[in-house]
């Protein structure tokens, strides 16, 4: 099997760990370096000249797109990002693929297969990846979370509710709170909308863990979770929840 040298740039620690583990686990890839910001990525990629670069788009100092435009050679590029609206710009830079985070290990393996398959034309690979980017990511079954030095998978159906905290999201599950460095909107986009409801800008609940709901003086619903937490729903979410009631 052909082995390709790999570099990746990613500013989020959890996403960096996931990507590093996936690269190490693949026999066709050899990791030679990584960076957590655009400026470092540009310098290190220029020095190491890897065959493949997995590149986040939104990073401190320089975006991934800016990094690629300043390189003096063209490695094989796979963009890793939570935002599908960068797809056209990515493929203008001859990206081989475009992974929407959080991606599955199977989706990563499919991307690597395209990197290693020299028989496929660049145009065919780009066309396929554009279709995948426009279709959006697969439903999220689980997320990797940290707890006291451990990393473990948390099934999506175990999530009771989430609250936004700046760039982070606090996930409540199994009677614990887990802080993950990914925006709540990014997670929401891959959760089952029949189960998970955004009740206001900073909170999302799993209906399976709702004990009851009651309207307040402004006719907006107060949602009481099984753990005793009360979360207020905004006007639009209150209307939606009323419409869902039989």
UniProtKB/TrEMBL annotation:
Source organism (scientific name): Massilia aurea
Residue intervals of the Response regulatory domain: 5-116
UniProt GO molecular function: DNA binding; phosphorelay response regulator activity
Keywords, in A-Z order: Phosphoprotein
Phosphoprotein as UniProt keyword: yes
Record SMART domains: LytTR (SM00850), REC (SM00448)
Domain of life of the native organism: Bacteria
InterPro entries: CheY-like_superfamily, LytR-like, LytTR_DNA-bd_dom, Sig_transdc_resp-reg_receiver
Ranges for domain HTH LytTR-type: 143-246
Any Pfam family: LytTR
Protein name: Two-component system LytT family response regulator
